[in-house]
Amino acid sequence: MGAKKLLIYLQAKFQAMNIHIGRDAFIELLYRNFMLVRRMRNKRKTTFSNHWMHKYPNLIKNYHPVSSNQLWVSDITYIETCQGFAYLCLITDAYSRKIVGWNLSPTLRSNNACEALQMALKTLPENHTGLIHHSDRGVQ
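-> structure tokens emitted (140 positions)
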């Protein structure tokens, strides 16, 4: 039962005891005494992995890198700005947690991820082998 319904339910009892309290004061009283239940917010889901496109095997299941440049993880997130949304593509080294490539763009296009990957590839030593580039299999 919510605070507003509880106030309606208790209103007759309050009047019988000559207690006058408004809705906001009642909610504040409940809040100060830790009697309000916090609402659970719906978390936005930004990754849809159950799509029709080809899914590559998960090469990093139970894999733990022991040095830098063995595993890069990429993800795309959106940032709300005063002009609308901007999309940030990040490529992170899983061992050092260092951001090795990024791209910020007002549109969600595949070339944004490619530009972030190009930036990351420039940080690799020459003739480097054995790197795994992993994403969350999202449609973005």
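The beta strands are 71-81, 84-93, 99-105, 132-135.
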